[in-house]
Amino acid sequence: MDSTQLALVALSVGAMIGGGIAGLVFIALRARDRARVDSSLELPDGASDVLQGMDEVAVVVDASGHIVAASAPAELFGMVVGTPLPEDDLRLLVRSARHTGLPESSTLRLRRGAELRLVTARVSVITPRLSLIVIRDITEHERVEEMRRDFLSNTSHELKTPVGAITLLAEAIDSAADDPAQVRNFAGRLSAEAARLGQLTSRIMNLSRLQSADDLTELRDVSVDEVVAAAIESQSIAADAAGIAIVRGGARGAYVRGDVQVLTEAVGNLVANAVAYSPRGAQVGVGVRADAAVVEIAVTDRGIGIPEEEQNRIFERFYRADQARSRRTGGTGLGLSIVKHAIQRHGGEVELWSRPGRGSTFTVRLSAIPAPPMAEHAGRRKKPKKPKKKAGAAAPAKGETP
Predict the structure, then answer these.
(1) What's the mean pLDDT when you consider all of the chain?
(2) For bias kind Basic residues, which ranges apply (predicted)?
């Protein structure tokens, strides 16, 4: 082998050795970079921007449970960058996800300000030292589902009760055909159950109409005096039977824009509730306060009152704070729900104040409008005219008896 060949062989061996060393160096550098990433607390590029754009609660935490990035809504749950996770349940969920290396989900109750909220939380490990937590508040969804379940359950029960009673009473009338007194008794009870069934179906239809997307069609300038008087009149028989006086007070001559029938039913339902839950001999007050912007109609009783924990649900369909009392009084559980939706459809609101043993006050607030010109004219009092002397009556002559 001459010198030229030896030089070529040496060059080839050197290239192979150099290439091997370069490969080893490249592998070592990649392993170092991977170790740096694994031990780094820096977020991937753009991750912070994604978090800031999220409407849901989302936070990134390190291995010790400290928050290194958060979306804007996370602050509502007390999750602030640089602070530890505020809830033990969340910390346990993060540990479980880090231990398995798989996403973990759970339904939890977390505190948002002063209230507990029902949430679903999902934890995903994004690097060996960082984990992503996404939280979705399902409190309202759960509440709606509970209302739906209550509605189906209670509607079924409420409809079955009068239907079953009507069936039994019809059979009883058939069996007592030879006893006129019994027939009259059963017929009266049958009529009462039929009326109850009719009231229930009517209220379900009214509530469905109020909850629909259709606008109210019978809008006009409504006299609050007319609404209050009609509402009181509709409950006068029940109040007299219960020995309860309904007293009307406050401002007169107020007007609102709305459907007079819907408003009358709403105020009538409040008066009916006050009568039903007041002791015999009590008073129910219906007061009106008005200014240029707002009209308030307050219905007050001195009855059993409503516990504080029940007050948030009192306007739900078929919900009753006192089940036994409601069944004795023949209530449908829809009255207050109708009130709420009727007033909301008029752009107003209903407020409740109640204390057990001290009674309740329901206050309806509606936007006031100026009295129509014809109403102002009719409201002005005319001065009474002096009676005229009858014409054609001559004065008696002197000495004559008048």
Answers:
(1) 77
(2) 379-391
Whole-angstrom distance, CA of residue 89 vs CA of residue 239: 54
pTM of the full structure: 0.51
Would you call 23 helix, strand, or coil by DSSP?
A: helix
- Supply the pLDDT for residue 119: 92
pLDDT at 341: 85
Assign domain 139-214 to a CATH class: mainly alpha
- Alpha-carbon gap, residue 31 to 245, rounded angstroms: 88
The CA angle 307-309-312, to the nearest 5 degrees, is: 105
- Annotate 253-273 with b (16+ C-beta within 10 A) or e (fewer): ebbbebbbebbbbbbbbbbbb
Among 297, 220, 231, smallest CA distance to 258 is for: 220
Longest CA–CA separation in the chain, Å: 184
DSSP state letters, 96-155: HHHHHSS-EEEEEEEEETTEEEEEEEEEEEEETTEEEEEEEE-HHHHHHHHHHHHHHHHH
Structural domain 47-137, CATH architecture: 2-Layer Sandwich (3.30)
Mean pLDDT, to the nearest integer, of 156-164?
70
| Helix segments in 103-179, DSSP class H | 139-175
How many CA within 13 A on the CB side of residue 285? 14
Buried residues in 125-136 as b, exposed as e (16+ CB within 10 A) = bebebbbbbbbe
Structural contact between residues 62 and 130, judged by C-beta atoms closer than 8 angstroms: yes
pLDDT interval class at 318 (50, 70, 90): low
CA-based nearest residue to 87, from 55, 128, 50, 116: 116
Q: What is the pLDDT of residues 29-50, one digit of tens each?
A: 444 444 444 445 566 666 677 7
- Distance (Å, rounded) from C-alpha 81 to C-alpha 66? 8
Contact by Cβ (8 Å): 263, 364: no
Residue 77: which of 118, 123, 41, 125 has the closest Cα? 118
Q: Domain 216-377, what fold?
A: Heat Shock Protein 90 (3.30.565)
